[in-house]
Amino acid sequence: MLDGETPVIALTLRHDRVDNFWFALLHELIHVQKHLTPAHLFIADNLDDKSRSSAEEEEADEGATEPLIPLAEWEGSEVKGAPSAKNANALADRLRIHPAIVAGRVRHEEGNWRLLSHIKAGVRQHFNDHLGGSASPS
């Protein structure tokens, strides 16, 4: 949303996964860059709502995907056709990103959340709650 001229982004840690965090943050940054205006001050996303579809959402999804794993890299990667830990780690090493981001892309593209499920990392431990303590699940 815009608070005057200042963009404000709020993310939940409900999905405590590094792939979800970076995708959601980049998705919202695309909205700030391209969609927020004085006439359009607020966008509420629910990334769990699979029925959502608009040009804005598609643009934000595409814009969030490309910086993490560029399409040319994804299309040419071995992990796309053979989703193994070895192939996921190889692509992650080449792109200098966390392997959980590659594993998340594999799961999303295949629609199979069990693929590479052992490759994961949380983000919650990197945040403090509003009282200065460690953020913990409710």
TrEMBL record:
Annotated region (Disordered), positions in chain: 47-69
Protein's name according to its UniProt entry: IrrE N-terminal-like domain-containing protein
